[in-house]
Specification:
A hairpin with a 5-residue loop joins strand 4 and strand 5. Helices cover 48% and strands 12% of the residues.
């Protein structure tokens, strides 16, 4: 399921009626909507009314519910808005959190009959933090681990450090010294290289395909090479397969993150 389809599926549930929202889970069981609860009398079938429901006895759902519970009301709203979902004003804080649980389950393909949404990299980034999440795999892994711990202060410190490192260091350098050090290590860590094939983006377009290939060949022998100019920026994008894994690692270490003077850093990603 694509992100758009997941959002549409969720939005259709809450858009049909502003009161159609999930209620608090009872004894951590099946969460039903308030509309469903009103509609289901003693002689009516609950199955037809459980349009917006998740089984919170499911380990995957329970884990996601626990993660969302640590978020503030504002953080939940922000995440929903980033996916294009606006919660009806009649919803309580618990209602909105349960909505986010379902959205996350849909986007990651964990809803029954759904498949994981493919992440689409934005053409531009709204902040340095967003860019780091998209372009630095080690940092993404680090930040996800921080979020999973459920410490909101640490999450906010890391975000602020990435966006404004000098200010964040002044504010939190004493109390969060180790956290900031770990964040910096994750930000500067080279991306993992698992195969000899690398996708690249960021060489100047006026460099041309031949010169681009020659530059990469200086690192080591190339088996396959393809290259084209980006439709969005005057840069070259493509894919190169080196003769062995060690050469691919050397290319990533040498070129990934290098500023080629086009306002963008070179990005080398193992595939």
């Amino acid at each position: 399921m694509t992100r758009a389809a997941a959002v549409l599926a969720l939005a259709s549930l809450v858009g049909s009626a502003s009161a159609f929202a999930p209620s608090k889970p009872a004894a951590f069981g099946v969460v039903t909507s308030t509309c469903a609860q009103r509609a289901c009398g003693p002689n009516r079938s609950a199955s037809s009314a459980l349009r917006m429901s998740l089984d919170y006895n499911d380990p995957a759902v329970a884990e996601e519910f626990t993660n969302v519970q640590t978020l503030s009301y504002e953080e939940v709203q922000e995440e929903l808005l980033q996916s294009g979902v606006t919660a009806p004003p009649t919803m309580t804080e618990m209602d909105i959190k349960l909505m986010l649980v379902e959205l996350r389950m849909r986007l990651t393909g964990r809803m029954p009959g759904s498949t994981a949404a493919k992440k689409e990299k934005p053409a531009t980034f709204s902040s340095k933090f967003e860019e780091a999440l998209w372009t630095k795999p080690a940092f993404e892994e680090f930040f996800n681990a921080v979020k999973k711990d459920g410490d909101h202060n640490k999450v906010n410190v890391v975000k602020e450090y990435v966006n404004t490192p000098d200010i964040a260091t002044q504010r939190y350098g004493k109390d969060y010294k180790r956290l900031l050090r770990d964040a910096e290590t994750a930000l500067t860590a080279p991306p993992p290289v698992k195969t000899p094939t690398i996708t690249f983006s960021g060489f100047p377009a006026n460099m041309g395909e031949a010169a681009c290939k020659m530059t990469l060949e200086a690192v080591g022998p190339i088996v396959e090479f393809e290259c084209s100019e980006s439709e969005d920026f005057p840069i070259l994008v493509g894919k190169v397969t080196f003769e062995d894994l060690d050469t691919a690692k050397k290319a990533v270490e040498q070129y990934n993150g290098m500023d080629m003077g086009m306002g963008q850093e070179l990005e080398m990603v193992s595939v």
